[in-house]
Amino acid sequence: MHNQGSWLQNALVMDAYNSTSNSLKNLVNALFDEIVDKTGLKVKSLKRVKQALKAVLINLWLSNLLGMPVRYSRDKSAYSHNRKYGKLYFKYHTLLPVIDALFSLDYIEGKKGRSKYEDKKKGYQSRIWPMPALIGLFIDHQLISPDFFQKPEAEELIIKKNKSKKLVGYREDKNTNKMREDLECYNEFVKEHHITVTLHSKVLTNNDFLINLFRNIINSRIAIKQILYRNNQIVVHRRIPQYILKRYTDTVNSNPPINQPTITQEFPCKPPIDNRLHRIYFYAKLRFIDFLASLNRKLHGEKKKNDECFLELFPLEKIGIEHLQFILNQEYLYRVFNRNSFQHGGRAYGAIHQNLPKNMRPFIHINGEKTIEIDYSAFHILMLYNQEGIDYQDDPYSVCEGPEMRVIYKAVGLIAINAENERKAYGAIRNELEDRGIPLPSIKKPLVALVNTFRDAHKPIARYLFSGIGLTLQNIDGNIMNAILMKLMDKGILGLSVYDSVIVPKQHEVFTKEVMTEEYQKVMGFNPRF
Predict the structure, then answer these.
(1) Residue whose C-alpha is closest to residue 481's, from 413, 384, 383, 396
(2) Which of the listed residues 176, 423, 448, 518 has the most CB atoms within 10 Å of its CB?
């Protein structure tokens, strides 16, 4: 596959990671000494060069696991950045010499990129991937499982974007300082809690979730805590090579037993105290990750061509899983504002639970306790009525054509108030219904008819259709949600926000509803619907 078009196109972006692994540190030191000795690399800053080497090695480790090349730029101008956000960016004068040194020692292969100036239609960045010699070093240093590195936390918690969604700078004031202070307190608070998701064999999933799960695992944002295979089987595309297990465990035994019913990190199984149990756990974890990696390689780049392959639902038991429990390691939040204004947008993003499928959120546990998700009903539609001084308490979607059409009119209403014009609204409604597998009504101009029915049912707020007011409403609900999280935190309660809902331990349901009602009333002057 190497050096071929489709394989080269589906490349990973060279990314930044953190690591405190002694094993990786030892590999970096050994390779650095070899590079200096054999290539004569000139080093101005020892620390920076080793940091660059560490970053390149982690990306190459991922390249090997995913079966994909890594893309990077050899254009000096590509390494400039917006200083406001202080993100860890690679330095041109340290990264490129490290990569070239790995080339000269035959640790990596690659393909030189082609600039857009040379070919505007086929311009692409350079690609690299590891050679067997480097893969062997990963194994020798026991860098097998993706738990030796992680994505860094967002360094800037208040992010501002322009209309093109590019990051822009801004001046600090009391408002930005207060928002940042709140998020810093919340992010420290969430670290004190243990957040898990426990799924049984009947829970519905799809390939889209499995691939996202895999990518979060390899970034250490999710960690597998417990896995139970159904009848000790799981669908896999290839066996884990024996030489990996042998070199990792330093034993000469045959494959570790795979009939252990439950494999869990809760076992204190550090070798050599209990090498057999350690090997069982390691094998089960690697086995599952290998399955996900194979699925990722198989489907990478196919989403636009075959959405059904990603979205078709099936129970976990179909892929041989009886029980799966994983830990959400990075539940940190940051706020994003749009259109170069602190009056547009401002919702909090970044936490892993926000991207879980809705049917999996009921299986979230906080410190071992079951949780409940409390959500504002018809949030934005009711906010518009409240702005008009109307205390609207009906279901705004069912009133259009009855409960059986509620799902359709929810999509119609929310898209219509967010869209900037009718043309964009009709296109977005069509795409949303197609994605959900919902056919359009068999009537003349169905999209126009749906919007007109919604408009007729909601004449007091009809002027907001196609107004693009959605970002303004997000600004309001983002501030309401921030106030809710802060008030819960003051009482020692962790709330997990999902934009218009909050997940809390069940024992705090009544108090959380009281807080959500109070904070909504402060801003909108009316009671919310739940």
Answers:
(1) 383
(2) 176
To 5 degrees, how large is the angle CA 231–CA 237–CA 241? Answer: 95
All structural domains of the chain with their residue ranges? 5-140, 193-329
pLDDT digits (tens, 9 = 90+) for 320-379: 888 999 999 989 999 999 999 999 999 999 999 999 999 999 999 999 999 999 999 999
Give whole-number Cα distances, 374 to 46, 234, 514, in Å.
52, 35, 11
- Dist. CA 447–CA 463, nearest whole Å: 18
In degrees and rounded to multiples of 5, residue 147 shows phi and psi of: -125, 15
Q: What does the alpha-carbon distance between residue 70 and residue 124 come to, in Å, rounded to a whole number?
A: 12
Query: 195-200 and 321-328: which strand pairing?
Result: antiparallel
Burial of 364 (0-12, 13-18, 19+ CB in 10 A): buried
Outline where 375-504 has alpha helix (H).
379-387, 398-401, 406-418, 422-435, 446-457, 470-490
Counting Cβ atoms within 10 Å, is residue 243 exposed (0-12), middle (13-18) or buried (19+)? exposed
Best CA proximity match to 52, nearest among 96, 106, 109:
96
Distance between CA 458 and CA 447 in Å, rounded? 17
Low-confidence ranges of the chain (pLDDT < 70): 1-6, 80-89, 115-123, 231-286, 300-307
The residues facing 373 across adjacent strands are 503
126-129 contact pairs (CB < 8 A, 24+): 126/71, 126/72, 126/73, 126/74, 127/8, 127/11, 127/69, 127/70, 127/71, 128/60, 128/63, 128/69, 128/70, 128/72, 128/99, 128/102, 129/2, 129/60, 129/63, 129/64, 129/68, 129/69, 129/70
One-letter amino acid for residue 289 of the chain: I
Tokens at 96, concatenated: 């490129």
Q: Which two tokens stand for residue 326?
A: 């994983």
d(CA 98, CA 158): 34
Q: Which of 283, 146, 149 shows the shortest CA–CA distance to 218?
A: 146
Give the whole-angstrom CA distance, residue 312 versus residue 321: 17
Q: How far is CA 115 from the centre of its chain?
A: 30
